[in-house]
Design a protein that fits this description.
- The complex is a heterodimer of chains A (135) and B (94).
- The longest helix of chain A is centred in the middle third of the chain and has 17 residues.
- Chain A is built from 7 helices and 4 strands, in the order βααβααβααβα.
- In chain A, helix 1 packs across helix 3 and helix 5 crosses helix 6.
- Chain B is mainly alpha-helical.
- Chain B is 68% helix and 0% strand.
- Classes of the chains: A mainly alpha (135), B mainly alpha (94).
Amino acid sequence: MVIDSSALVAYCLNEKEHDIAKISELLKAGAISSDIIVVESANAILIASRRGLVDKETAEKALDLADRLAKINLKLIPHSETIKDVFDLAKKETKLTIYDALFIFLAKKTASYLASVDERQSKIAAKMGIKLVEI
Amino acid sequence: MKLIYHQVYQIVYQKCLPMSVVSVKVSPKVKKEMEELKDRVEWPTEIRKFIESRVEQAKREESVGKVERVLKTMPQVPKGTAARLVRESRDSGH
């Protein structure tokens, strides 16, 4: 499975209405991701804290969880290794940012499922024939 | 290609990295069968790979266990929060 930043942040912020047990099982098996997941997740948690969506203590806990999972449960692929292919992929889809394309490309390349809670990214991935994890 | 991979693997592990010995007891019957199959099965390499893989698996399970315990102490955020925050950041500059 390839995990997108949106899914990791949803898990670490304890977001409602997600199948937390299922995400846990998938993470126990190990997942692949782009190394930008660390920066994107930290940034999202920081914004959540600044906007008062979570208190400071919760934000720090969420960051610790994301950091732990990235180090132990994820195989991180350096974005520099795939960036040219990712750029080509993003050029074909006007609604695809490089960030979205990094995860879609990894799922495509490794023939893996994609775990994302982002609607736009999921739709484009599905259109490309990538199977999605229902979380 | 597979042979070269095994040779490189063995050189790296046996010559370059410090190794420790792990002993495992098996029945005489299994030991005899292992002996008979030693030309087909590279036992040290396969057992080493299995142990390494199992260690990684156990570490991942322990990690998720710790994460789940912390999640139980945290308040929940509404559905869609993570997707919105990540999306905003990705789309900024578009």
